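User: My collaborator sent over this chain with a note saying "see what the structure looks like." That's all I know about it. Can you take a look?
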Amino acid sequence: MRRLYVFDTTLRDGEQSLGITLNADQKLEIARQLVRLGVDVIEAGFPASSPGDLEAVRRIGAEVKGVAVCALSRAVRSDIDACAEALKTAESPRIHTGIATSPIHMERKLRKTPEQVLEMAVDAVRYAKRFVSDVEFYAEDAFRSDREFLRRVFAEVIKAGATVINIPDTVGYASPWEYGELISWCLENIEEMDRVTISVHCHNDLGMATANSLAGIRAGATQVEGTINGIGERAGNTALEEVIMAIYSHRESYGIEMGINIKEIARTSQLVSMVTGVPVPPFKAIVGSNAYSHASGIHQDGVLKDRSTYEIIKPEDVGFASNRIVLTNRSGRHALKAKLAEMGYALSPEEIDSVYKKFLEVADAKSHVTDEDLAAIVQGKPVHVREERVKLKSLQASTGGVVSASAVVVLEIDGAAYEDGATGAGPVDAAFRAIRRLCGVDVELVDYSLRAITSGADALGEAVARLAPGGRNGSAAGAGDVVGRGVDRDVIKASALAFVDAVNKLLAAGRIDVAPPAAQAEAAGRGV
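Assistant: Without extra context I'll predict from the sequence alone. Here is the result:
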């Protein structure tokens, strides 16, 4: 059987999604889970982009074993130097360098001739080989590139020492038959290609990233690149769990083997969602909450008689539990811990205690707590324990008639309680205004969303608030934004919790500071 290598770029290409910023601890946590999943390569980041990313790649390289750790660079020597520095202690280091090869990119973005691009590509690979033996070369926007030029570039970079050739559909423009034909053409017309690993990297702008990746694998590619849950720029990347399970479900016809432990798929998906703050859509293939649910009477009847009538994948195969532990307000910590472990959550005793308190609040209000309720409770708490300088103690909001909505908020700021009220266009707006005023912070609400994440009249609501420090001076949308999340049966409270969570993240990053009413009064007395 042909071996397919799985290259995960959740920590690099996935993190480039609007609104996602991961620190070194968060990247390390995901990387360790990716090893348990069984991926072959982890692209840990782009070291030249920031000191934080260089440190994250360095820590993953030093602490994560049993997998190749990869760092991205442009075809620029200083970028490659940063990769080499970050990968010094990695067990199996790889530098992923490359340059755009399509006419539109060369002319409009790079402003270079094809000959200059070819020279830069070869120089980058040769320079990277000074530091590592494993060098992957990417031809950005390969699908829209001239075939003859691709042939020249690939042949020359392989001669220069490239061990992997990445053929991306950078803008998600291909159709499966077209992309598969490109991979076939490269194999048939570039003699040197039989000496390297051929990698497919597809984006999802037209919704065909998974199909295109599978077409490329069918055509002979031996490495697939993608992200968990399909996160990524614009419409996202190939969702690795979809490719993995498509091949697993048709393993006899593909004739491919992978080193993946499919039982870790659910756990990995949930961890990435929890850490990034990007929820998994209910109808998401393989890992969505509805993927193994049946509402139609006809479907229910069929599944009860033989589950294979409507289920092509057993939920247990990918790490979901088929049986259900019914939790009520009479359930203890042991039952809760067992259920959370069954759902793929590995929590510390302190985290169990925190989740248990929230669980009891929900259980007191509902006849039983569902799996969806538990997932929402876990994902609504901070992933990493951090000092929360601002805490929401209470909230009262009202609206109606022709008067403005109002909210009265009590916050605990650095251990002291403060109360204030505000009016607004609605109760959520009023609550946000009161929190801003109490904290004395200048923050911009970049985006806000609210959705029900469980079913029924007593469902939990999830609010997401994206904040940035005020006065960004025209910086690009999403540059430095933080995402706060709040979960509660009261959607106004969930919204306030999300706003407070984002404020705490900005405080933890040192990008703002609070000035509670006492400090504001003192400053006013000094004439500040």
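A starting point for your reply to your collaborator: The chain has three domains: 2-276, 297-379, 390-518.
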